[in-house]
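Hello Y.,

Per our agreement to keep a running log of every chain we model this quarter, I'm adding this entry. I've kept the format consistent with earlier entries: sequence first, then predicted structure.
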Amino acid sequence: MPRKLTRQEAHEFLDSKPGWILLSTIGPDGFPHSVPLGYFRLGDEILMGVRAETKKLSNIRANPKVSLLLETGRTRKDIKGLMIQGTATVHTGPQETLHYAREAAKLRGAAESELPTEGRKGAAYIRVVPERIHSWDYSS
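Predicted structure for the entry above:
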């Protein structure tokens, strides 16, 4: 039986970036649309930088309920993961995208002088506010 991660352990697992996070949205045909994305965490929220005007963004605008999956391990003895269900918002404004680009750069350790000074053209960010978090850790 796997044990559940504490809130702090879940944050540490997310911050360790063991892989791509899998974002699942629901398309207009009712089918899930799942894509792997890079991500970062700000507080309890998860952010993903993407290109503007993609299918995942139109899906979120139509139905903001999403699921995120992050898992690591090769055997049942070392599998650890998180499934985060929440509400997503799409951010495309120049000030918003610049703010999130700067936050992501800070988390990567960029010096203040190396932080972006303007948002990238055609960039967007997806922000997910978690509502339910399910976790599992078979390694304990």
